[in-house]
Write a structure and sequence with these properties.
Strand content: 15-25%
Largest sheet: 7 strands, mixed
Number of domains: 3
CATH architecture of the largest domain: 3-Layer(aba) Sandwich
Distance between the termini: 15 Å
Strand order of the largest sheet: 3-4-5-6-2-1-7
Shape: flat
Low-confidence stretches: 251-262
CATH superfamily of the largest domain: P-loop containing nucleotide triphosphate hydrolases
Radius of gyration: 29 Å
Structural class: alpha/beta
Mean pLDDT: 85
Oligomer: single chain
Length: 463
């Protein structure tokens, strides 16, 4: 997708369906003209004569037959103080798919074209209002699953990560300038290469890049959530635990073993950490084909999970199936959850020896809710050391960013090694240019059209 400055684009920017309001957004040089062709205001000046950032009430009218489509409010915002830095008009319709689609169709017929996914935000980037890392934060805001994830994404939109990246790039650029100056004066008998100062600059840059890389796990978890499997023998309370964590009756709970036959997936906010919960069928020797398939799905969920909540019934003696399942858990992190703490506990529960994959055990009652808070705290402790802080706005939440920063750190180490061993300045210069290019791809200063296409294709139409 290549930006054409002469294009005026339009799209529905709110979710399709019934609601209080729906918005058709139009951006480009002819935005005001296109809307004015299909808008009849009640009184006063036409929208082309209205001041920027004003709202006028009127009606969308089909110019072909004069029929009225919807009563609307039209917002007029003139460049450059808009989201795209172009003229933007937003038609605020009544929420409903037919009114929105008719309005959009009329605006397109009046001279606009249908916007592509993410094209409004892409124009904001290409017109210099935001950098690429900030543009990517927009989709993180839309997809945020918890308040902490939203705060992190807002920090990114405010420039938290890109400011750090730009600062490192500036330091590396300064080092490159000094090294290239040494190349320029290489024919003269003058020592112009301050090695100690350059080493200090590059070490500081490397330290900052490495610190950013340590945030990538936290960032990915906040963005995508932790894949969490609830496993155990039949009728130990897995579905009850799911319901307790959700604070809602999502899964069917009965005293009949084998009630859950398929994977039930839900996302729950645990102290700011999104858990992608998978309630699985009880793992045991299957009785019949349907249960066999359910058990197989449970074992697959076990293998792909980053966190396993392994339930046992604390009111009953630990059986061979319990021990076999505990021994089978060897990926990710695991917590032994001893359920039914509201009942007398079997002595054998205290004698279980846990593999290294287990990070602790918690006693709960999924029926009464006792211990659920302690379980949530234990999960937070495993992944964030008990401290989940959204005040740090410089967090890597993108695999693309992580790879680029990792590459930049690797090349910075290489440049340091070359510098400390007295290698030619030309060689060091090449490596530092690669560092600057990697960092520029994060903020969008050096990025190809193919990368932009992949990034903005993830956006919804209208954003």
């Amino acid at each position: 997708m290549i930006l054409n400055d002469d294009d005026t684009i339009a799209a529905i920017s709110t979710a399709i369906g019934e609601g209080g309001i729906g918005i058709v957004r139009v951006s480009g040089k002819e935005a005001v003209t296109a809307v004015e062709k299909v808008f009849k205001n009640r009184k006063g000046l036409p929208i082309s004569k209205r001041r920027s950032h004003s709202i006028v009430m009127g009606t969308i009218v089909d110019p072909n037959d004069g029929s009225e489509v919807d009563e609307v409010l039209v917002s007029v915002m003139r460049a450059p103080n808009t989201y795209t830095r172009e003229d933007v008009v937003e038609v605020n319709c009544h929420g409903g798919s037919m009114a929105l689609r008719r309005t959009l169709g009329l605006v397109i017929a009046a001279g606009a074209r249908a916007a592509e996914p993410g094209e409004f935000t892409k124009r904001a980037f290409l017109n210099g209002r935001i950098n690429l890392a900030q543009a990517e934060a927009v989709i993180d805001i839309i997809r945020s699953k918890t308040d902490v994830a939203l705060k992190t994404a807002m920090g990114q939109l405010g420039g938290g990560l890109s400011n750090k990246i730009s600062a490192v790039a500036e330091t590396v650029t300064e080092a490159l300038v000094q090294i290239e100056a040494a190349v320029d004066f290489s024919d003269e008998d003058i020592d112009v290469l301050p090695v100690e100062g350059l080493v200090s600059m590059l070490k500081d840059s490397l330290g900052e890049l490495e610190r950013l890389l340590t945030t990538s796990i936290k960032g990915r978890i906040l963005k995508e959530g932790i894949r969490t499997a609830i496993v155990g023998r039949p009728n130990v309370g897995k579905s009850s635990l799911l319901n307790a964590l959700l604070r809602a009756d999502r899964a069917i709970v009965t005293p009949v073993p084998g009630t859950t036959r398929d994977i039930i997936e839900e996302i729950v906010n645990v102290n700011g950490v999104p858990l992608c919960l998978m309630d699985t069928a009880g793992i045991r020797e299957a009785d019949g084909e349907v249960e066999r398939i359910g058990v197989e799905l449970s074992r697959r969920a076990l293998k792909i999970s980053e966190l396993v909540l392994c339930l046992i019934d604390g009111s009953k003696d630990v059986g061979e199936e319990d021990l076999a399942l505990i021994g089978e858990i060897d990926t990710g992190a695991a917590i032994l959850v001893i359920n039914k703490s509201d009942l007398p506990q079997a002595p054998s529960v205290r004698e279980i020896r846990l593999p290294e994959s287990f990070k602790g055990q918690v006693e709960i009652s999924a029926l009464t809710g006792a211990g659920i808070g302690a379980l949530e705290k234990a999960i937070e402790e495993i992944f964030f050391g008990g401290e989940l802080d959204a005040s740090d706005t410089a967090v890597i939440t993108s695999v693309r960013h992580e790879q680029l920063v990792s590459n930049a750190a690797m090349r910075t180490r290489e440049a340091l090694s070359l510098l400390c061993t007295g290698q030619p300045e030309e060689t060091i210069s090449i490596v530092l240019r690669d560092v600057i290019r990697d960092l520029g791809e994060v903020t969008g200063e050096s990025v190809g059209e193919d990368v932009l296409g992949r990034i903005f294709s993830q956006f919804c139409i209208g954003k």
